[in-house]
Amino acid sequence: MTPNEKTRVLIEALPYIERYNNKIVVIKLGGNAMSEIKNAAEDIAFLKRMGIKVVVVHGGGPEIDKELKKMDITPKFINGLRYTDEKVIKAVEKVFHRINKRMRNRLKSKGVKAINATGYIKARQKLQELGLVGEIIRIDKQKLAKYLDLDYVPVVSPLGIGTGNQKYNINADTAASRIAVALAAEKLTILTNVDGVMINGSLLPHIDFKTAKKEIKKGNINKGMIPKVEACIYAVKNQCPKAHLINGLVPHALLLEIFTDKGIGTEIVYKNGNK
Ligand code: ADP
Ligand code: MG
User: Where do runs of H (alpha helix) occur along 33-82?
Assistant: First the structure.
């Protein structure tokens, strides 16, 4: 890189540094691939140094499957949602605890203060036939806001808490979007294992609500991508200015997305041409 190119990169970043200073960014991580966690931790440390308040929400599907296998339980899905009984929720809690700790340790190793912020999602049973799958009633945002003010990165496991302290299994993308809206975050960024929304083999840099709904209906957006796209739609509809899907396996994906003009991945927008 020539000196000119180097200075251009710094100058290009400045408006973004100004825009996000002291603002909240909610980042959802898959939480399984170690490379994703490593990449993200380094980038989050950078965001923190730039004065950005970061909340991390993690997922953990594949690791839950492994844990259930050890317990001789075959995972069961109904319309893409994991049927969850008492045994499954115990396994889910155990895995989430492990992933949460892994994430916090990574952040701490980069000099970032991190705290387990699980337990602030109030939930109730979604549907009888899904067992302990939860529907979010509200986010107890005061504690999360307090941690942010104290310069911590709250690391949230997607567990819902119901009456009598009943734990519920919640989709992590959904949890991240509700938290982003509750905290009036400036941005929701969902990291995953693909570049973004792909339709017929090509990456869409933007997708609007109407097109997203249409492509879900057609089956071109399916499985784990559905809750992601829906989470981003929910965020943008509820005054979160920006919602993105990016590939967490790309080194420094978060920095590229936040601090460069072109960005990467797929941005979910209200209407095409209304960016
Ligand atoms: P995560 O662990 O990040 O939540 P998921 O497996 O739940 O990941 O969701 C991401 C997956 O969604 C992708 O790996 C891909 O297989 C699937 N997917 C379905 N439809 C699409 C699409 N249109 N574009 C990209 N990925 C899609
Ligand atoms: Mg998923």
Answer: 34-49, 61-70
How many angstroms separate the CA atoms of 140 and 152, rounded? 17
Of ligand 1's listed atoms, the one at least distance from the Cα of 248 is 3
Q: Is 70 in the pocket of ligand 1 (CB under 6 A)?
A: no
DSSP state of 204: -
Residues with CB under 5 A from ligand 2 (ion): 224
**Which residue puts its alpha carbon closest to atom 9 of ligand 1?**
224
pLDDT by 10s per residue, the chain, length 275: 899 999 999 999 999 999 999 999 999 998 677 788 888 999 999 999 999 999 999 999 889 999 999 999 999 988 778 899 999 999 999 999 999 999 999 999 999 999 999 999 999 999 999 999 999 999 999 999 999 999 999 999 999 999 999 999 999 999 999 999 999 999 999 999 999 999 999 999 999 999 999 999 999 999 889 999 999 999 999 999 999 999 999 999 999 999 999 889 999 999 875 44
